[in-house]
Specification:
Length: 129
Amino acid sequence: MPRAADYTLAGQRRAVGLPNGSFQMEAAKIYFIIFGLLTIVGGIIGYVKAGSTASIIAGGITGVLLLVAAFLLPEHRVAGLATALIISVLLAAQFVPKFVHTGRIMPAGMMSALSVIGIIAAIVAWVRK
């Protein structure tokens, strides 16, 4: 049975707890911050270990874009989620085939998993907004 504190003065029932979708949006924000930082670190490691300038440039650009997407959430949901989804799809398109072909966990396996999780996180946060 609802308590008296669950109603406003006008007799309308008020929401108790988190607003609908805010938890998913906050979780997505945290995920894309971590994903962005790991992508930047991965680019730096690729440069240091293999001398790959492509790794540091691609890792830096995509990592920064993921961080920008994260910090756009939740105030600018559409822009943040669209950016995160596009970058996640592009990274998945790059790393999933590479992982399937080589079977190597680092970096292709890890980036494949992070990208697929990013796609799922963006879609879930979009649906629950």
